[in-house]
User: Fold this.
Amino acid sequence: MKRLLPILITVFAALSPAAGQQRLSDKELASVIWAMGEMYPDGFTISLDSLRQPTRGIAVSYLETQNSFDKKSIPAVIRHARAHNNLIGGWYDPGEGRYYFDSSRIFPEDSLAAALDFARKNHQHTVYDLGKGINIRSNYEEKDVRIILDCDMGSSTDDLFALMMLYRYMDMGRCNLIGVVVDRMGRANADIVDVMNNFYGYPDVPIGLETDGQKDTHVWITYHNLPYARTTEGVPMFKRSVGDDGTYMEGYKLYRKLLSSQPDRSVTIASIGFVTTLARLLESGPDEFSPLSGVELVRAKVKDIYAMGGVFGDAVEPDYNFKQAIDFSLKFFNLLPKEVDVVFSPGEVGDPLDYRPELVISDMDWTDLHPIKWTYQFLNCDTGQKMWDPQAVINAVEGDDFYKLSPRGFVTLTPAGETLFKADPKGNCRYQYPGDKVWCDTVLKYIRLMAIQH
Ligand SMILES: [Ca+2]
Assistant:
């Protein structure tokens, strides 16, 4: 307390309403900034104009003031901040054991892509969302992630959010969505993806549709009418590229077309529905797109698969996705080449991530016409939906160190739909472990942050 008292006096004197009226000298300000660092061991951001801590927006540091970590470096940080955005941030780096001071800039919360672009130009690895209290990686080492999303659009709403994440990742230059395969039969389910493509500004992402997959699958939320929604004036609410007379390519054919045109071992598949179309791809023979069989094509072109599904640990019970289309699932597990890495995302990882319907609607208050918002406004989505599918997509783009993964092993599927894991350093399979409360809160905030971008 002895040490803290002068700090408190310094800071509160500086932050008092009277102090706000008069500009502090740089020397006084340097004492305040240093004291703030002592008071806020986890970090702070302060405006030099108001001497208040902003509570909204995305803070990014400038390159010029990085490596400022002692009292002597603060005056230079103040000079830079005065000449730029009048903002100073402090943060503790546990790796280095140092507290850093930076001249910063704040972007609006809905301008994540611009904030990350600025961060990359300033060699910053992360940006900080002040309102949500989360760091977001700017992925300074940009990766060339080529993704095919394989989804069962048209039942649970988490497929919509997984697809939304991919568009947002593309906005940020983090991945390239080269195609979407819809493994749930029914033309409307592909039309939903078409609506999403157009809404998010990627109308040319090709869509394939399964036409001979699992029949009579359960539908949780019937949002298949979404593509055909009209305003009270009778005008279609959502734009589509493929008109009513247009057709979609057969799902496994689109896989063959896309894979054959990609570099070897370059494609990541995020599988968040059934594996029906993947099974048909693996069973396919040479065609107009490739002289390779399906198995050979997957072995040559696919780097890894991030699959929502699997039940691991002590529990031996059927997996929902795999059991619903068990004949296809068994073929998939038997035919998939062991050279292809698979990361499973068990349901328990997404279970704690509860994106409440009222939050979804309020996060999307920036527009009246939104396909996901429409679904939440006009259908009952309070059915225990959790953010399961985004876990496979986030892992695919963010990389494996974003999650805690099991050791390597092999996974076999039983005819009852149970996934059996056998540890083996040479194995191609791993699975995500559930995160703790802080991790789950952070990831849910991350998904919400993506929902408010526009
Ligand atoms: Ca799904």
In short: The CA atoms of residues 161 and 413 lie 28 Å apart.
